[in-house]
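Dear colleagues,

For the upcoming journal club I promised to circulate an example of a predicted protein-ligand complex. I picked one with Double cubane cluster because it came up in last month's discussion. The inputs are reproduced below in full, followed by the predicted structure.
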Amino acid sequence: MTTDHTPMWKNLGLDIEAHDALLSVLGQAYGDIYLAQENRPEGMGYFDFVMSEVHGQRIQELVDAQAAGRKVIGCYCVFVPEEISLAAEAIQVGLCSGADFAMDEVEKYLPRNTCALIKSSLGFKLAKVCPYLECSDLVVGENTCDGKKKAYENLGTLADNLYVMDLPQVKSDEGRALLKAEFIRYKEAVEALTGNTIDVAALKKGIAIVNNKRKAMARLAALRHNPVLPISGLDALIANQVFFYDDPVRFTDAVNALCDELETRIAEKTTVVADGTPRILVSGCPMAVPNWKLPAVIETSGAVIVAEESCVGERGCRNLTDDSADDLDGLMDALVDRYLAIDCAIFTPNTERSGHIKELAEKSKADGVIQYTLNFCQPYAMEAIPLEKELEETGLPTLRIETDYSQEDMGQLKTRVEAFVELLK
Ligand code: BJ8
C-alpha cells in the first residue's frame, strides 16, 4: 500500500498542485529514461525505489529525525563539508536544481541569461515545490561563480535561514586560510544550530562516514573502467545523484552491494552494451536531479558513458579526508586539504582539471570526451575551449555541448551527438 504524503507536504508549505505536476513529470521521465533500459543490474532496484520515494519516504525520515531533535541542512555545492554536519548529528542533503520551474517568476528576480541551475534553484523556492528546501533548518549557499553569489542575495530575501559560505577563488596560502576560516565558522554555525559540540571523536566519525561513502563511489567508478561494462552511464548517474539525498550509511551499503553484483557481472561477462560501443567521458557542469537530458541522448545514440568529470561524479567524490590527526585543528586542516583539491572551474588558475580529465579518460578507456556546459555558465564555457585543444592534441576527440534544461534543442542535440558517435566508431 502506498502512503499518501500529501498531509506532510502541506505541513511543509508546498504548493500541492504545482508539486503534483512536478512529481508526475519526474515519474514519467524516470520511467521513459531509466526503467526502459534493458539488462539492468538488480541492485538498481534500490535506487529506483529511492527515486520513487524521493519526495515521500525520504522526506518523512527527515521530518521524523527533526521531531527527534536532529537538524536538516540543505546545500547547493560539494564544498559544504558533510563531515562537519554529521559530526553535529545534523543531516545534510543536496538541493537539486535540475529542472525548470516557475521561470516567469524567476525572471522577475534574475536575468534571462542566467544558467539553468541557478534559475532552477530559485524557481523551486518561488514555486514551493522542493520538500528538501522547505524542510531544511539551514540552507547553505556558497560564493562560487558570480551567478550563484548574486542569486543568493535574492534567495536571502525569500528564505530567512540562508547561510552563505565564502570560498576562495585562488588556491594560494591566503585562499587556504580563507577556506579554513570558513570551515571553522561553518562548524560554529552548525554547533549553534544543533546545540551539539563537535569534538575529535565526533568529527572522526563524520569523516569516516563520508570517506566510506566516497570509497564506495570510487569502487563503482572503477568497475565502469572495465572493458566488460556492467552498468549503463545513466544508472551510474542516478547513484551519483542519490549520493546527495540518501542516508549516507544506507547509501554506502547499497552502492557496495551493487558493486558486488557488478563484479560478478564482469566475471560472467554480462555487459550492458554491444562490443565496440563507443565509450564517452562526460565532463563539465554538474547534472542535478532530474537533469538526465544529455546522458539520455548519448545512450540512445549508440554510445555509453563510462565516467563523469563532474561534481555529480568524480570531481565531487574524488579524494578522501585524512583522519589520522588526533586534535580538532589537525582534522580541520585535513578537511581543508581535501576540499581545496576540488578542481571547480571557479578557481583561477584551475590547472589540475585537464590532468584529471586525461587521467580519467585513460583509466575509463574513453574513446571521446563530451564537454557539457550549461548555457551562460562562464567558468565551464571558458575552460572548455582550451581543454578541447589540449584533449585533441592528445588524440582524444572532443565535442562541446552548451544546453539548458528545456527540450527545445533535443533534435539538434541528438544530431550533433550522433555525428560525434559515428566519428568515434
Ligand atoms: S564545486 S561546479 S557544485 S560551484 S553551472 S551555477 S558554475 S554558472 S555549479 Fe558547482 Fe560547487 Fe563548482 Fe561543483 Fe555557476 Fe556554472 Fe551555473 Fe555552476
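Two points we might discuss: Residues 5-203 form a domain with the Rossmann fold fold (CATH 3.40.50.11890). The CA atoms of residues 373 and 402 lie 5 Å apart.

See you all on Thursday,
B. R.
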